[in-house]
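Attaching the record inline, Q. Sequence:
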Amino acid sequence: MDGKYLTFSLGNENYGVKIELVKEIIAMMPITPIPKTPEYIKGILNLRGKIIPIVDLRLKFSMNWIEYNDRTSIIVVEVSKENKVRNVGIAVDKVAEVIDIKTDEIEEFDDDATKTEDDFIIGIAKLKDKVVMLLDIENILASKEIFNMKDTITA
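Structure, as predicted:
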């Protein structure tokens, strides 16, 4: 679990994803809604000719939705499931920094601590000035609603 993580915030909570899964970070841009998808799938965007589904992590984690602002970012991550690979964007309140987290700073996550995020958190990093929940982003984004959307559509 140790290694480099991109950290970001949702409200007052800090999260991290393994940096090797991050493809790029972009500013919030117009998202085209897709009918009949779960609320947390905000829609799709055209990123240099590729259609990328956008997941709002606030909604995925059953948090209150807030209006997107100039700090809202989209982290494009590469996820794989059953030998399929696709890029997915996750909307977050604010991207923070890349940090190197050592094994002795990580505590295993107690599955009984929460009902909504128990399959999503692989550990909790206890740093000097904050606590960062380390996410299993591939598990979060492995739902068939996200993964089975068309991978590339030219605009």
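Confidence is low (pLDDT under 50) at residues 151-155. The longest strand covers residues 73-81.

More tomorrow.
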